[in-house]
Amino acid sequence: MKVLLIFPPQFTPFRPHLGLPSITAYLRSHQIEVTQRDLNVETYDLILSKEYLLSLKAILAERFKALDSRAQLSPSSQKYYNDLFIATASLAHVAAKVEGAKEILRSKGADFYDPGVLFKARQILEQALAIVSIAHLPTTIGFESLEIPSFDNTFEGIQFSTNDNEHNPFLGIFVDRIVSELIKSKPDVIGISVTSRSQLISSFTLSRLLKKALPKTHIVFGGNIVTLLADSFKKNERLFEEFLDSAVLYEGEKPMLALVEHIRDRLPLNDVPNLIYRDETGVKTTGRCLPEPIDSLPTPDFDGLPLKLYLSPEPVLPLLASRGCYWTKCAFCSQNFGFGECYHKRNTHLVVEDIRKLSAKYNTSQFAFVDEAISPSQIELLADEIINTGLNIRCSTNIRMEKQLSSHLCQRIATSGFKMLYLGLESGSDRILQLMNKGITTDTAQTVCRNVHGAGIWNHLYVMFGFPGETMQEAQDTISFLLDHKSTISSFHTDNFSLERGMIIEREPERFGVTVEKDRINDFSIAYSYSLNRGISYVQARQLSDNTMDEVGTQFDGNKVLELITHYYLPLYLSHYEASDPSLMNIKLADNAPIRPAKALRPGSIPIVNTSTMIWRTNFDLINIRRRLGTGQDTEVLPEPSTMMFDSESKLMGSIPEQAIEILELCNGRRTVREIASILGKTYDAPVNEIEKGVLILLNSLVKSGFIKFK
To answer: Which cofactors are required for activity (predicted)?
Structure first.
């Protein structure tokens, strides 16, 4: 019996997700043959490659040419024209550097731990993803998100998007590179883990292709999103005709084992727990079972995953000390829904044994506890056990701001190797915290921040604006809390409230003054449109969130560090610099502005155009279009032939006279300004001295703008 487990794109590619290794370990402990594939990280490695990026050249050029040849550009076309130009002009430079950028992120050497080098490598990869996005607009893909606007959250939308090669970046990749390889082993069962909304379309795209290629193979979906969308799966019978055979709900170990055994033994599926499936009479849902006792679960098994492909210099392995949330009362949270509102803690000795095994097997000291919220009592036991066994590890975790996090406990947590704690503040208003049912006060939050920071642990706070009923003054109270306690808050991130499936607010909207716009809810919607009868609106909350990050975040040294290295790499940096710079306050952003020599070019200077600078002739004036986009003008533009210079590294753009092209072609790093003027003088039978003056004026302006260097 062969089982293939797949983690599909799109999810962050910095470390493995824990879902597959947990199910794999459980099935293997019951002598089931399992292969696991992280197609997410494999897909990122593919699209962030020179070969793939250059394969987009023709389509980008064709689309730009089509726009450039128009008699006018509408307001909606002008941004697309600008973005297409940047993607097309940047392509060669980014493609040439993308492989090196990936290697920097995977290297244990000095480059990764040089924040300036790391920052530039990240910029190249982000530019590469921007190019991929432009090739599939309006779809956009980043490291943390995937948006497919053409998908309307309906079954018909799934059918369309999974066949839409123009806007679905995964369809061509799966057809050309993935499916033919997956079907070689002819698995009996294929499990696809859907833990994020951003994985929905790729999962259905892959399953449709696999179902066609392997009609006798049983395809099953599982994961948190499947549990959230259980009602939608049940009511869309055609899903089970075109895309999958069954779906597992809640924790997956026991139902997956039962499903595999029933398929192996050719038994009816009605006895498999937590299952949605279709038989000859229609879609069925089986009874729910209790999860496997957490202490009976084996250590997660990462064998078969391409650990060297993750964008990290060493494996950072996820681990759970508990499943579910012990609090479960926060009105805005849906995370515990996937665990069936269950909470269970793993024995501390077993957790430490998991760490020991994984550390030895995969040669890593880096762990990320991905518990919804590890309890103070459990982290105390865990810290003591780690210290007593002498394990030398570094880790991070989510934890609630509980009063039990005393100064003494925080010191023990730090001694055991915890370098970073993620803390949910949410609001600086006690009334809003009470409405949220957070179970904390601002006084408790203040004390926890002080204790965690005082122990030398980096605390990262999550903040929310726009909780139903929040006033503008209460939002300001949150901002004031951040500023008043700046000395004990390492960093923070803001977001705005969004109404989603599985929340208490979604189940009891009237209690919170929320009106759900039901006519705008489709079967596969995760987030809902809504209106409020009081408090700040969604739009106001979004603006507050953005403004706080821009205006308040820049006042926090820790937020500046995160701009450089991101929170994904923060634990690695904290470990690397724990002796020399434990708070990372000596890390500075490298100056990424163009090199501007103190002195101007002289006749004996040797100019050279930056290797990242391209010269383009366009039918429209991009400088004018950019100006219009910046001021919000919404009228058409007419052709205005221009010659543009664009530097793909600095993103600088400038307009030059047509005659300048001949001069720039002579700036090859081997000729002086005087020699260039001499060549032009002979070509046009003109005084060399006069030409030299004009050349110097042009080139010095381009040196000033950052398009040219000289020696």
So the answer is: [4Fe-4S] cluster
